[in-house]
Amino acid sequence: MSLPNGLLPLKDILECGYVKETGFVWLKQKNSTTHKFEKIGKLVSYATEVTAVVSPGKIKKLTG
């Protein structure tokens, strides 16, 4: 799995996992997080549980 650094700036991660066969990834954190990407001026929020399907250089079906 290769993703750009800083793409998912999550803090206090309690659990994470990756299913290599399907590319499914999950991350659980203590509290939801809000982050502003300064270069593009976007504010995003991440829930306590974030899931996605990843492939080299891509993220699909991002939830949370």
UniProtKB/TrEMBL annotation:
Recorded hits in PANTHER family, A to Z, give: EXPRESSED PROTEIN, T31J12.3 PROTEIN-RELATED
List the top taxonomic levels of the source: Eukaryota, Metazoa, Ecdysozoa, Nematoda, Enoplea
| Pfam families linked to this entry | DUF538
InterPro entries recorded: At5g01610-like, DUF538
Species this protein is from:
Trichinella patagoniensis
This one is known as Uncharacterized protein
Top-level lineage group? Eukaryota
